[in-house]
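Dear Dr. V.,

Thank you for agreeing to look over these. As mentioned in my earlier message, I'm a first-year student in the group and I'm still getting used to reading structure tokens, so any feedback on how I've presented them would be very welcome. I ran two proteins. I've put each sequence directly above its structure. The first is here:
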Amino acid sequence: MFLYSVEFLILAMVIVYSGSKLSQYGDIIAEKTGLGGSLIGIVLLATITSLPELINSVSSVVLIDAPVLALGDILGSCVFNLVILAILDLWQKDVPLSTKAYYGNTLSAAIGILFLSLILLAYIVKDLNIRIFWLGFESVIIFFIYILSVRLIYIHNKREVVKYLHRAVEEKKYDHIMLKVAIKKYSINAFFVVLSATFLPYTADKLAVASGLGQCFVGSVLVGMVTSLPELVVSITAMKINAIDMAIGNILGSNIFDIFIYSLVDMIYIKDVISASLLKGHIISIISAIFMTSVLIAAFIFRAEKKRFFVSVDAFIIFVVYIVLLLFEYKLR
């Protein structure tokens, strides 16, 4: 077990380091090429920090036939991403992070709840065996709503994006870095992320067996946390330059893309609909993510004028829900 733990830790460190660098060089390439202003560029950059989840989930079902592990990573990442927002709230001294958030983030949060609810519905009615070809009905709905919602979010946030791009053009943050250097370093870090995320399911599966924690717990808690750490690094960087909406938008956008990965995994996993592999531990993650996102939406709308303590009420609730989630996941292992 010690050997598997060390191996897991090494892979985690590579994913965190290379994942954060991937986001940095992706931002540089966007500035140099002008991709950031297009819908394609925004979608591309939004998926960079979710690359570990994508590779790990696909590897889990293709290479080791472990859909439980893949689902744990997808749903566990959604939960931990929301915990990241609570962590970022600690950076705000006077007012809650949610008070400074752009209203457009409410749309992204609502779409996230819609997607999670569809997966929950699929679990509830799985005995009815509703499918479209070899796919679960929820995967097809999520796939098409994702395509439509990306465009909707882009239109809704267009003004804010344009403002940010104008500032970025004026600032020329990466004038000192050549495009070919950025592409080279981006490619190198992408290689290490893909390689590490490909091997991660093997190690996670061995760790689940050796520790007795099971695939659901290891996937939802450990793997979900590891593959979400690049989002934490990128969001902290955004907070340092006071780009609060970038930090929040990155997290909520990553959650939407993570659930989109669910539909992609269902397309790849032809043995059965992916919802057939959902366990109670996964459902706890879904309910927790829905609850946390609902709290965030309420906070976005309420917009508290100041903090009474070092942490805002919404962030505190998210922390508490996450601790309760960990206890439930451990009990259900």
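The second protein is here, in the same arrangement:
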Amino acid sequence: MKDGITMEVMSNAKNNTAYLKRKKYNIWPYLFLLPFFALYTAFFAYPTLYSFYISLTDWDGVAGINKMKFVGLANYIRLFTRDTLFYKSLFNTLLFMVLYIPVVIFGGLVLAVLLYKLKSNRRLFQTLNVLPYITTPAAIGVIFAFMFDWSTGIINKILVASGLVQEGINWLGIGSTARFVVILMLIWKNFGYYLIIYLAGLSTIPEELTEAALVDGANERQIFFKITTPYLRPITQFLIITSITGGLQLFDEPMVLFGGSGGGPFLIGGPDRSCLTGMIYFYDRAFKSTTFLGYGAAITYGIFIFIVLLSFISSRLLYREEER
């Protein structure tokens, strides 16, 4: 019996030794992962950590001339307690999201249902709706700046020619109308994206469900609200979360619309800062009107905290409704 135990111990020792040798020399997975982690560290992890360190300093970004002065949380205290423009930029961004996200989600769903039933020319209408989404934001800002120009814009010319107004409206010079133009621009740009996502979701709904509902006497409205909408609920939740995170990073379109190329000599963020977003405010404080890179970095982390909180709250509300 002792010999059997000894043989079993020796066999286990050999197996363990062979396993350790294989494990010791099996470095190929790590070699394949190394380029990804090296690039991730160089272009994401290190810049993120370094920008956080910059947010704790008083620095204008001029390396070699002005030294960084460590100030701790002073930038954050100033940002959250005394900076009214920061809160105004967040309010403007939230206002844009509240007004344009429901329109593109519900409108994209309705149009997707209509196009899904269209057998001919479906691809043509899909392409026409997706073209604005793949257009560069700078080009979209320039187009809307010229369309809504006070003196030469085509919108004012149409309104005056039709007799709806006596003289052209200063769309980009008044805070309320400037916000309307930005919201309209966001709807026009993003509508095609939501349409395509919902069209993909509609293709996953079993046709047997709608056919059975029609046999039972359900009309189109009942099928839409009782079958289509609940079945596409996960897609809607995904679109809401991504729209919130993306909307809080809004920068290109309002910046081009009011920062040049036909936008006119406005304050950055439009008249009365009515279209000032968080990212535009960061750009203005860090690089344009002032060069306080440390405070600008603090603004980006303030926006990041706000994105995390808002995304967490919205996701909890959405999934709580689903559990009910």
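From my reading of the second output: The mean pLDDT is 83. The two ends are 64 Å apart (CA to CA). Does that match how you would interpret it?

Kind regards,
E.
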